[in-house]
Design brief:
Mean pLDDT: 93
Protein name: Metal-dependent hydrolase, endonuclease/exonuclease/phosphatase family
CATH superfamily: Endonuclease/exonuclease/phosphatase
InterPro entries: Endo/exonu/phosph_ase_sf (IPR036691), Endo/exonuclease/phosphatase (IPR005135), GPI-anchor_lipid_remodeler (IPR051916)
CATH topology: Deoxyribonuclease I, Chain A
GO cellular component, one term: membrane
CATH class: Alpha Beta
Helix content: 10-25%
GO molecular function: endonuclease activity; exonuclease activity
Distance between the termini: 13 Å
Radius of gyration: 17 Å
Strand content: 35-45%
Structural class: alpha+beta
CATH architecture: 4-Layer Sandwich
Low-confidence stretches: none
Strand order of the largest sheet: 3-4-2-1-12-11
Pfam family, one: Exo_endo_phos
């Protein structure tokens, strides 16, 4: 059924457990593959890190998004955001379907946090229009997030047709739950957990989620269900819980 999609978003914490105690990128990959989703939105993905590669004997060859995508998601893109002496990290999108175009837009609000919007178009068989996907990881400070949300709205209004299917997912750092009025209402988006449960999901920390930081917004879909993946084994694989949803194209 090409009209049905399964979607997940996950802040992988650069492949390390909470407090950077252990490299657990291999366990993260196993957990994500167990979800069997069509499209995955990832945040804090390491594209390159020379020091980690030298320190850990099981550090993946190549970038983490390629490591995650290997043999399961044939299409993947990576947006480099934070660049430092030993390497860089950013956002990534993995897809079972062809990614026909993509762009990473710098939305950094100040020099202390490097942030970007990774925007791609995916061709789904038998769909008349491409699916637009935007992966985000917003800043820690309210003023910066407001600026970044303005950039998100501007990009969507400029590049995404009003009738095109759209998914926006990632780490919004939105513990005050202000994203909905700022973005969703203005762009006719629905947050999947607000639809199924009445409120955004608790996703941080993964061992016992309290804060509602992560989101999945959709437009042009019926939301079938939504799930927070926490507890064993997820509590051992990142400080964020993974979120997933199944949606049906209207």
């Amino acid at each position: 059924m090409f009209n049905k999609l399964s979607i997940a978003t996950y802040n992988i914490h650069k492949g390390f457990s909470s407090f950077n105690q252990r490299l657990i990128v291999h366990k993260q990959r196993d957990c994500l593959r167990g979800l069997n989703t069509d499209i995955v939105f990832l945040q804090e993905v390491v594209g390159q890190h020379a020091k980690h590669a030298a320190r850990f004997t099981n550090w993946p060859d190549g970038s983490q998004h390629e490591f995650f995508a290997d043999s399961v998601w044939p299409e993947s893109v990576y947006g480099k955001n934070a660049v430092y002496k030993s390497g860089h990290h950013g956002n990534a999108i993995l897809s079972r379907y062809p990614i026909v175009s993509w762009e990473n837009e710098d939305i950094s609000a100040h020099r202390f946090e490097s942030r970007g919007l990774l925007h791609c178009e995916i061709s789904i068989p038998k769909w008349e229009e491409n699916l637009h996907c935007i992966c985000v990881h917003l800043g820690l400070f309210k003023k910066g997030r407001y600026t970044q949300l303005k950039a998100l709205k501007k990009r969507i209004k400029r590049l995404v047709p009003a009738h095109a299917p759209l998914v926006i997912a990632g780490d919004f750092n939105d513990w005050r739950e202000t994203t909905g009025p700022t973005v969703a209402d203005a762009l006719d988006l629905t947050e999947v957990f607000e639809f199924t449960d009445g409120r955004a999901a608790r996703s941080f920390p993964s061992a016992l989620p309290i804060l509602r930081l992560d989101r999945i917004y959709v437009r042009g879909f019926h939301i079938e269900n939504a799930c927070v993946h926490h507890g064993h084994p997820w509590s051992k694989t990142s400080d964020h819980a993974a979120l997933s949803t199944n949606v049906i194209r209207r």
